[in-house]
UniProtKB/TrEMBL annotation:
Binds 3 Mg(2+) ions per subunit. It holds the Pfam family tRNA_anti-codon. Homodimer. The lineage of its organism: Bacteria, Bacillati, Actinomycetota, Actinomycetes, Micrococcales. InterPro entries: Aa-tRNA-synt_II, aa-tRNA-synth_II, aa-tRNA-synth_II/BPL/LPL, Lys-tRNA-ligase_II, Lys-tRNA-ligase_II_N, Lys-tRNA-synth_II_C, NA-bd_OB-fold, NA-bd_OB_tRNA. Residues 193-504 form the Aminoacyl-transfer RNA synthetases class-II family profile domain. This is Lysine--tRNA ligase. It is found in: Cytoplasm. PROSITE patterns: AA_TRNA_LIGASE_II. It catalyses: tRNA(Lys) + L-lysine + ATP = L-lysyl-tRNA(Lys) + AMP + diphosphate.
Amino acid sequence: MSDTPAPADAPEPTEEDIFEQKAVRLAKRERLIADREDAAGGAYPVSLPITDTIPALRERYADLEAGEETGVTAAVAGRVVFSRNTGKLCFATLQSGDGSRIQAMVSLAAVGEESLAQWKEIVDLGDHVYVSGEVISSRRGELSIMVAEWKVAAKAILPLPNMYGELSEESRVRSRYLDLIVRDQARQTVRARAKVNASLRQTFADRGYIEVETPMLQVQHGGASARPFITHSNAFDTDLYLRIAPELFLKRAVVGGLERVFEINRNFRNEGADSTHSPEFAMLESYEAYSDYNGIADLTQDLVQNAALAVAGSTTVTWADGTEYDLGGRWDRLSMYDSLSAAAGVEVTPQTSLEDLRSLAASAGVEEPPLATHGKLVEELWEHFVKGGLVRPTFVMDFPVDTSPLVREHRSIAGVVEKWDLYVRGFELATGYSELVDPVIQRERFTEQAKLAARGDLEAMRIDEEFLRALEHGMPPSGGLGMGIDRLLMAVTGLGIRETILFPLVK
């Protein structure tokens, strides 16, 4: 049997080492088949008479003193992550899926000579093993099972990575299953994500929202300015788009009378990938009739703070690097144009000409975006002058009208729309709107977007006649929210986006 795992600084096994280990382990699998009474059943049992879980035993017997016996028999299964053979007594550490561990003690006196010899010969690090026996505390105070019966539940044909070393980020992402076995943080992140999603759903339920589902395959992409993935349906003999946002369908639901709706969904955008962007990502979108972007900002603050409480027990979260970040209190609300003017030392308004904006960009060394418009350049300048100085969670309010075709014009400021972006940790976490519900103005906005598309803007929206037809049946004034679930995990845990996604897309 494999002995104690290698030290943290041990060199990685070569391909030749892995090939040799695989051959040895495959031979042990053949031995398991030969030893089974029903060889047709394969190498491993179909099911096992498990009575307890490792975390449940650890909780139940947390106060067991060293050397104490319980007289209670338990049957558990786990992955072997540590082993030591010492003649008449073998020790193995079994790990459950949540990382909880228990020691298995296989002794000559309890299982007999033949069973002990089989354990030493067949069981390797990484194997899933079933053990049954009395729950005790070892002389060193380690919660243990004194094994009376054992079986290999599944054999690891390939060896585990060094349990005491560090997987590279690339290895963690490409082989997340190994990351989950080896690293506590990986398991904690998965559970944090589940807690976040449960918290989001509970907050919405408390506010009377209904969770719905909308199509991922769409005949017309829309709901955001993004470049879509395109696929083809053989059944309909037509090109389809992978969803870039659920917005236009969720608004149809509001038209239909579902006045408070939300969806946690997968979106796909055929764009760059970096520390805050993934081509496939999880998105929360919600719409509330008779609300506006101020009410949606209040909702968003509650959603994020409740999620932090669910994961960390506090609105002050501790990131993976040990840094504390305060998500509590009432968050600041900052005007995009006013904050840009203050930071640049030049007044910038919705009426500032494109030429003046280009001059400011050139003097500040800001690269002009392709097919620049007033709004695109204002947002580039704002990111250059203001974004880096945001520390606390901040709602950046009132965006240029030409970059926000689905948003209602501001009720008192000409040239801007009632939209905010929420910045946390220096990145955009969420966006909120007072929704544009007038189909006449919406058609005008779509027409302007179509002109940009004709000029080569791959992110511009197209005219969506079906959506306009829905609006023509009357949509109540509404507030809308879009928030990245992966980014919410980043805000709570301090991790990069590839760490918050269980199986991220990699090249």
